[in-house]
Amino acid sequence: QDGLKRCLSELQQQLAWVERLDVTSGQVPDPISQSASNKDAVDPENDFQREMSFYRQAQAAVLEALPRLRKLQVPTRRPDDYFAEMAKSDQQMQKIRQKLKSKQEAMERSEKAKQLRAMRKYGKKVQTEILQRRQKEKKNMLNAVKKYQKGLSDKLDFLDEEQTSSQGNKKGNASQRIKKGPNAKRRYKNQKFGFGGKKKGSKWNTKESFNDVSSFRSKVAHNKGPGKGGKKALNKRPGKRARQKMKSRAR
């Protein structure tokens, strides 16, 4: 203790308080009990009490030092145009920024890859469910057919279900085709060269052509016209039985 006091007397300098800015005080009174906390009441093993005692002591020092600084006309607030130089250079900060950016991009790529894997997994699951449903429907259909063949059931409801499902698929495909329409290339050609009209089925009979018999010629239809040879020309080759009789006669 004597050595500490001797060292303190050697180091101690008689300077003004504004040069030293040292404040020694107790703790701020507890707002709950409205009384200063006793040192003995603080348990040093209790981290929360110990930190709170340090906090109240710092508050007491601030409340004592601020009025003295204002009295000495010492500014205690940072000015609006205060500029503090950064501890790290701009090059170092640029490297850190690039590092953070590359890390963020890597995380985004990883997240996208994870989403793609999840989508593929979900699509595969949906496809598997559709295949299982089709196999189940096929199995039920075969079982129903077997029961009907064996006479165990006389209901043909499964045929109606199959027909309605096929009709629904055809309607869906037709609606898709109608909605789709011609592509851009076909539309451009139609606009440039014009639309030639319907080609398929143009030679089909209509009601008027079916009832019109003015161009009908019976001799031509029955092969009786000139140069056709009549009935005999039609039967140039005898039938099979006639040919067999001719062979037997020849023998």
UniProtKB/TrEMBL annotation:
What are the annotated GO cellular component locations? nuclear periphery; nucleolus; preribosome, large subunit precursor
The protein's predominant localisation is: nucleus
* Pfam families in UniProt: Ebp2 (PF05890)
Q: Kindly give the InterPro entries that the UniProt entry links to this protein.
A: Ebp2 (IPR008610)
Q: Which domain of life is it from?
A: Eukaryota
Regions of biased composition (Basic and acidic residues) lie at 102-114
Q: Which UniProt keywords apply?
A: Coiled coil, Nucleus, Ribosome biogenesis
Tell me, in a sentence or two, what this protein's role is: Required for the processing of the 27S pre-rRNA.
Question: What's the protein here called?
Answer: EBP2 protein
Gene name of the record:
Ebna1bp2
